[in-house]
Write a structure and sequence with these properties.
By secondary structure, this protein is mostly helical. It folds into two domains: 155 residues, no CATH class; 203 residues, no CATH class. It is 71% helix and 0% strand. It has 19 helices and no strands. The chain is globular, with a radius of gyration of 23 Å. It starts with 5 loop residues before the first helix and ends in a 13-residue tail after the last helix.
């Protein structure tokens, strides 16, 4: 059940109507939980058992961690939660990749082993809700939060449908206190702005760029260098609009129920360095990796060499979180390397002087965009070998150009969507910079945006609406 669909619109209308008729808060929370389970079961009903298992396990473990005073038993309980949650994630997401890697090693070593691994369907959103349940147990273990007041509240925290399948990744300490204040139906100008803007990002921008990106990356190194460069630029825009569009809609939908989700994007392509990029891109994943991986590994508390290693490990595992493949691992390693190089810069003190500030900021921004673009090529390529071949073709300037020879691809639409988006995106960014804050929108602005979004959706609705990219993670 996709957000930009008639089926989901009817689902929301029915849910809001039923919530309006119910006045008791426990019944409202129960209805919202059942609706969330129904929403998830629209993909594959059997996988609801995984969410139920994780919810029950961490609910009981959370209560035991809160009441038990014995350090040894508390560590054992936390270990059970970590092993169970990561074990399920590893089985569904990484077992096939690990099996293929082990089989390839065995064959290259002449061991003569041979086996076939069953095709395992990846449960949608498992990476997101696994991180949420893990953070709940870890935060209770660290005495940062208290357990949820009821199993109903905790189950709704895990399965809340707007952000269940692709984030933002929400902390229990942020979400549970809001449930205690109650579910309140409200339609604000901000919700209208976020939902309409998210729909435009997804359907108008991302889905119109997708056919060209898919065509070029399917062609691989046989595509021309200009095609690969343009397709990678299109993919950088596609994945941003696809993912931030989903996050915007999720935040807007949650606000209809009186619940606030954390911001997940803040103009990442205007970042001024690798660390700034990760403070702006997929913000909730970045802070999860920081708080539950980088800091426990030692952070920057044990000298420069250990800090570089911790950064690299964190980003390497962040890349692996996105998918079971060498291209994702290389993407994570590349960003880990960028963060290390930023800290290693020996000219940082000199280049920060006022006389150098403007040229350094501009050149640094250009270098970062090139580095991020290279990372997206690694991320989007089917495998590491294809990524290397396509990078070689792009940098060499060779290869036949097939810009006008792709069936089903309207090049004019691709270029028009790309240019118009970046002009508007830049204007929105500079508007925010001038005001130094984001003002709460009024109804005039929200309705104007809704009218513009409706026109764009009518004119540029894609022939094929693709699932959100981050559903596969």
């Amino acid at each position: 059940m996709l957000f930009p669909s008639l089926q989901f619109a009817l689902f929301m209308l029915l849910l809001c109507g039923l919530l309006y008729l119910l006045r008791a808060q426990p019944l409202r929370r129960l209805l919202l939980l059942l609706a969330s389970y129904l929403f998830y079961m629209a993909w594959n009903p059997a996988f609801i058992l995984l969410i139920l298992f994780s919810s029950l396990l961490d609910w009981f473990i959370g209560n035991a961690l809160h009441t038990d005073a014995q350090p040894g038993r508390r560590r054992q309980l936390l270990l059970i939660s970590i092993i169970a949650n990561l074990g399920l994630l590893a089985w569904f997401k990484y077992s096939g990749f690990l099996s293929a890697m082990l089989l390839g090693f065995a064959r290259s070593s002449g061991l003569g082993w041979d086996w076939s691994w069953p095709e395992i369907t990846l449960p949608v959103g498992i990476s997101f809700y696994t991180f949420q349940t893990l953070s709940y147990s870890i935060d209770i273990y660290a005495r940062r939060i208290r357990p949820a007041s009821s199993l109903l509240d905790y189950a709704l925290y895990v399965a809340f449908f707007p952000q269940l399948v692709a984030g933002p990744i929400v902390r229990a300490g942020e979400f549970l206190p809001q449930l205690a204040r109650g579910i309140r139906l409200q339609l604000s100008p901000r919700a209208v702005l976020l939902i309409s803007g998210g729909l435009v990002k997804k359907a108008v921008i991302a889905d119109n760029l997708a056919p060209y990106v898919d065509a070029v990356y399917s062609a691989g190194q046989s595509a021309g260098s200009l095609d690969i460069l343009l397709a990678t630029l299109c993919f950088s825009t596609q994945i941003y609009c696809d993912f931030s569009g989903y996050s915007d809609m999720a935040i807007g939908l949650a606000s209809i129920f009186g619940l606030e989700l954390p911001r997940n994007f803040n103009y990442p392509y205007f970042a001024q360095g690798p660390s700034d990029f990760w403070r702006r891109w997929h913000i909730t994943l970045s802070r999860w990796l920081r708080d539950y991986l980088y800091i426990p590994l030692g952070g920057n508390r044990h000298g420069s060499l250990r800090t570089y290693l911790n950064l690299f490990i964190t980003m390497l595992l962040g890349g692996l979180w996105h998918g079971a493949g060498w291209s994702f691992i290389l993407w994570g390693a590349w960003h880990g390397l960028l963060l290390m190089l930023q800290r290693l810069n020996p000219l940082a003190a000199i280049l920060s002087r006022p006389a150098w500030r403007l040229p350094v900021k501009f050149s640094g921004w250009l270098l970062l965009q090139a580095a991020v673009l290279l990372g997206w090529l690694l991320f989007r390529a089917p495998d590491a070998g294809s990524a290397g071949a396509m990078l070689g073709t792009m940098l060499s300037g060779r290869g036949s150009t097939v810009l006008h020879g792709m069936p089903g691809v309207e090049l004019f639409t691709v270029l028009a969507v790309l240019v118009i988006f970046w002009i508007c995106h830049g204007l929105f960014y500079w508007r925010q910079r001038r005001s130094h804050k984001e003002n709460e929108p009024d109804w005039k602005r929200a309705l104007t945006s809704l009218a513009i979004a409706t026109i764009l959706l009518c004119l540029l609705w894609p022939a094929d609406s693709a699932p959100f990219i981050y559903f596969q993670f």
